[in-house]
Amino acid sequence: MVIDHKHLPQFDKMRLTLAFVVYPIQKMVDFPITKLRRISGFFVTQSDLHAENQWYKDEYLLQQGRLQKLAALETENLHLRQLLQSGSQVKADDLFIANIINIDPDPFMQQIIINKGQKDGVYVGQTIIDSDGIMGSIVTVGEEESRAILITDASHAVPVEDVRNGLRAIAVGTGNRGLELRHVPNTTDIEVGDIMITSGLGGRFPIGFPVGIVTKVKHEPNKPFATIILNPSAKLDRGRHILLVQNNKNKAKIKAITKDGSE
User: Fold this and answer.
1) pLDDT tens digits for 7-49?
2) Cβ neighbours, 10 Å, residue 244
């Protein structure tokens, strides 16, 4: 080691010979250490890749959730625009938006609960609509919530008129997401595809709003009345926004109550 340290030229050949002899020994000694380092590095790399892959999966899931939220907001905005357009037949101050917050679990009762009540000017008998037509009317009013009955409920009826020929009839709910025209004579001119709108008779429902489309007409010779089934125009089982329509009579009444605090 002293000679090697002094780098004497006469010992260069000996140094090369010793290095040649020692090299295999060094390789044998280093082999396990090198392999261990490589294996350790492999597992560390695999662990890093697994963690990075999991991060990308989590990030992808998060972004998909955000995209769904944006899609839901876009759909909701579109629905709101359609609602406002559907109310173009009445004055803007005769309409206001409410949200459906619950539905009646009873399968034989087609009713919903909305987040507007007496303090918002809601009254019994008030018409509710969506972007496609009449949905129903208010039956009970609380301070902050109200219950509405849908037009498909078996106890609900609405006066209608056939757009094609002006024929008037009464559409009654079947209790099963449908409507039926009651007591229409067999000879009456009603066809599949006819559009029925509110006739305005009785003053309860505003005139000219879509109610349903005729999907079935059955004439039986031994019966005095035809069987006529309608499919509701309104999307009764979709969305959560509705419009409430005020008629002038109840609007004036509400203003009077608000002014002096008593009816």
Assistant:
1) 555 556 666 666 656 666 666 666 666 666 666 665 667 777 7
2) 24
**Whether residue 254 sits in one domain with residue 144:** yes
Would you state the pLDDT for residue 67?
Answer: 58
User: Both 223 and 211 in a single domain?
Assistant: yes
Q: Residue range 147-155: average pLDDT? A: 93
Mean pLDDT in residue range 72-81: 61
Residue 40 Cα distances to 46, 49, 53, 188, angstroms: 10, 14, 20, 88
Polymer length of the chain: 263
Q: Are 215 and 229 in contact (CB under 8 A)?
A: yes
CA angle, corner 158, sides to 133 and 137, nearest 5? Answer: 65
The H-assigned helical ranges of the chain are 2-6, 12-86, 248-260
pLDDT of residue 50: 75
* Confidence (pTM): 0.62
**Is pLDDT at 150 greater than 70 in this prediction?**
yes
Answer yes or no: do 53 and 168 share one domain. no
SS3 of 235-251: CCCCCCEEEEECCHHHH
Indicate the residue type of 108. F
How many domains is the chain partitioned into structurally?
3
Q: What is the 3-state secondary structure (H, E, C) of 151-193?
A: CCCCCCEEEEEECCCCCEEEEEECCCCCEEECCCECCCCCCCC
d(CA 75, CA 194) in angstroms, rounded, equals 29
Average pLDDT over every residue of 163-174: 92
Rounded CA-CA distance 81/226 in Å is: 39
Query: Quick one: pLDDT at residue 40?
Result: 62
